[in-house]
């Protein structure tokens, strides 16, 4: 894998990765009637992720990258399925609620990962981390209680399910640390592609959307891949606590892009979302100060 020659560049590289990911919700908001074409979106996005990551692996490792698929094992399959499920529920979440709620649900991923690690990998959780989990849980409940509009609560619940899917991916990598990360994500993209194709054929849907939408689907898949590659290159030079804070760029900027009036969306978060989101941010900040280990793995959306 490509490595940074100067570790001082690691922080800006991770920030740039977060910025790439943060444009995802803005891209989705510019899709015409996104709620009516989720499977076409997942079909194209999944295919783009699969092809681009394999192309990157080929450039990095040569034809030997194919051997990574033999190393993936049961943990990689579980991680790929979890990540694919997260990708699928992400589009359903963000098309049924505000981008702020979806992103703040995903921001709770470190705590969900800690809980899953505790339950399935017997990883210890310190009192300080339990405190952070408690603060985040209160914030999430405040967001949930403040969303009674039609489909909004459904979008919130799907956002939580998406965060759980990403956490399953992270825990699978902790289970067997030798599991090839990029290959696991490529498998997730392939699963999204295959499941979407089956649904499209079964429901007799159109395979391809408008040229504008298809371009936006591909752009989102490309942003995911570019951000992931940059994040992976820089992560070896940054401590887990710093990564947790730096990766908040994705959430903060993602909410900002869809709110910024002159970008054409002007999606203002509800009061409960702001209050609950503040508690989630507070929990993550506290979490980043107290964790000593437990590397945070790549978070995609």
Written overview of the protein:
This protein is mostly helical. Helices cover 73% and strands 0% of the residues. It is built from 13 helices and no strands. The chain has helices spanning 10-29, 38-61, 68-71, 73-94, 99-107, 109-120, 127-145, 152-175, 181-202, 211-235, 240-246, 248-259, 271-290. Helix 2 (38-61) runs antiparallel to helix 9. The two termini are 23 Å apart. The model is unreliable at 294-301 (pLDDT under 50).
Topology:
Elements: H1 10-29, H2 38-61, H3 68-71, H4 73-94, H5 99-107, H6 109-120, H7 127-145, H8 152-175, H9 181-202, H10 211-235, H11 240-246, H12 248-259, H13 271-290
Helix pairs in contact: 1-10, 1-12, 2-4, 2-9, 2-10, 4-8, 4-9, 5-8, 5-12, 5-13, 6-8, 7-13, 11-13
In short:
By secondary structure, this protein is mainly α.
Task: Give descriptors for this structure.
301 residues, mainly alpha, 13 helices
What fraction strand? under 5%
Number of helices: 13
The separation of the N and C termini measures 23 Å
Percent of residues in helices comes to over 70%
Oligomeric composition of the shown chains: single chain
Structural class of the helices, strands and pairings? mainly alpha
- What's the average pLDDT? 87
């Amino acid at each position: 894998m490509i490595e940074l020659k100067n570790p001082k560049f690691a922080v800006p590289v991770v920030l740039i990765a977060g910025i790439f990911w943060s444009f995802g919700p803005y891209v989705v908001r510019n899709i015409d009637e996104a709620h009516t074409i989720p499977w076409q979106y997942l079909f194209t996005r999944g295919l783009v992720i699969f092809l681009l990551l394999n192309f990157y692996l080929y450039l990095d490792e040569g034809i030997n990258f194919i051997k990574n698929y033999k190393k993936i094992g049961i943990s990689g399959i579980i991680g790929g399925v979890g990540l694919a499920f997260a990708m699928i529920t992400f589009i359903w979440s963000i098309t049924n609620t505000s981008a702020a709620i979806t992103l703040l649900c995903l921001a709770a991923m470190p705590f969900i990962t800690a809980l899953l690690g505790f339950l399935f990998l017997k990883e210890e959780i310190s009192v300080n981390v339990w405190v952070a989990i408690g603060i985040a849980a209160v914030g999430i409940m405040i967001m949930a209680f403040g969303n009674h509009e039609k489909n909004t609560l459904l979008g919130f619940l799907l956002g939580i399910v998406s965060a759980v899917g990403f956490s399953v991916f992270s825990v699978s990598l902790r289970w067997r640390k030798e599991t090839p990360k990029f290959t696991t994500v490529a498998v997730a993209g392939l699963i999204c592609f295959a499941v979407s194709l089956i649904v499209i054929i079964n429901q007799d849907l159109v395979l391809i959307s408008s040229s504008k939408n298809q371009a936006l689907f591909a752009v989102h898949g490309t942003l995911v891949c570019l951000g992931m590659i940059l994040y992976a290159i820089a992560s070896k030079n940054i401590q887990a606590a710093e990564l947790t804070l730096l990766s908040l760029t994705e959430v903060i900027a993602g909410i900002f892009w869809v709110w910024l009036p002159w970008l054409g969306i002007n999606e203002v978060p509800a009061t409960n979302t702001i209050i609950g989101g503040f508690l989630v941010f507070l929990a993550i900040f506290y979490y980043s100060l107290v964790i000593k280990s437990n590397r945070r793995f790549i978070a995609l959306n």
